[in-house]
UniProtKB/TrEMBL annotation:
<protein>
    <submittedName>
        <fullName>Flavin reductase family protein</fullName>
    </submittedName>
</protein>
<dbReference type="Pfam" id="PF01613">
    <property type="entry name" value="Flavin_Reduct"/>
</dbReference>
<dbReference type="InterPro" id="IPR012349">
    <property type="entry name" value="Split_barrel_FMN-bd"/>
</dbReference>
<dbReference type="GO" id="GO:0010181">
    <property type="term" value="F:FMN binding"/>
</dbReference>
<dbReference type="GO" id="GO:0016646">
    <property type="term" value="F:oxidoreductase activity, acting on the CH-NH group of donors, NAD or NADP as acceptor"/>
</dbReference>
<feature type="domain" description="Flavin reductase like">
    <location>
        <begin position="19"/>
        <end position="172"/>
    </location>
</feature>
<keyword id="KW-0285">Flavoprotein</keyword>
<dbReference type="InterPro" id="IPR002563">
    <property type="entry name" value="Flavin_Rdtase-like_dom"/>
</dbReference>
<keyword id="KW-0288">FMN</keyword>
<comment type="similarity">
    <text>Belongs to the flavoredoxin family.</text>
</comment>
């Protein structure tokens, strides 16, 4: 079926996109204002976009008409943030930090989480997260109602038991047990069900075609 985005309300276009572009990794973003007040919030409009420099991006929507979310306001104020990745073990706590608490309420405290000082940026990371990416602002990209926050990754933390070989920078990715965002308001996917599809070189592809023709 065809859905012409020029002819349907943007709410319906959004519904179609988030139900089909799945799974999406979850950025559990920690930021803080100039006074040092820490905020934590999850974003599933998130991914990595560049390798040199390493740049990740999150899409921050508005909190209310004419207002920006705390995450965006804090990053605009300090230029720093930390992206924590979400494992199955802390998915419920991540969901708690998505609650629209009133000002002055700590999402991290409400979720029973703790923080650990970062190595490069002033913003702390979530201790319970298996991976944390320390970021400095690279660029703000206006995108309609959203602002795409591009962050340059300046340091990355991986839980010790999730490294296969630190000297070779090999991560035990399955052991991270990360989750991804799916459709609707509450569906997620585990990354424990995997298939391996090796990359094919031109020579291998030509040999495969030749074998099929023989």
């Amino acid at each position: 079926m065809l859905f012409d985005f020029a002819r349907i309300p943007h709410e319906q276009a959004y519904k179609l996109v988030v139900a089909s572009v799945v799974p999406r990794p979850v950025a559990w973003v920690v930021s803080q204002d100039r006074a040092g007040n820490v905020n934590a919030a999850p974003y599933s409009f998130f991914n990595a976009f560049s390798d040199n420099p390493v740049v990740v991006g999150i899409g921050c929507g508005p909190r209310a008409p004419g207002a920006v979310k705390d995450t965006l306001a804090n990053i605009e104020a300090t230029g720093q943030f930390v992206v924590n990745l979400v494992s199955a073990a802390n998915a419920e706590q991540m969901n708690i930090t998505a609650i629209d608490f009133p000002p002055g309420v700590s999402e991290i405290t409400e979720a029973g989480l703790t923080t650990t000082p970062s190595a490069v940026v002033k913003v702390p990371r979530i201790t319970e997260s298996p991976v944390a990416l320390e970021c400095e602002i690279f660029q703000f990209v206006p995108a309609g109602r959203h602002t795409i926050v591009m962050g340059r990754v300046v340091a990355l933390h991986v839980r010790d038991d999730c490294m296969l070989d630190p000297a070779k920078f090999y991560v035990d990715t399955p052991k991270l047990e990360l989750v991804g965002r799916m459709h609707g308001r509450g569906w997620y996917a585990r990354t424990t069900d995997r298939i391996e599809i090796p990359r094919i070189s031109v020579a291998e592809w030509e040999a495969r075609k030749k074998g099929a023709a023989d």
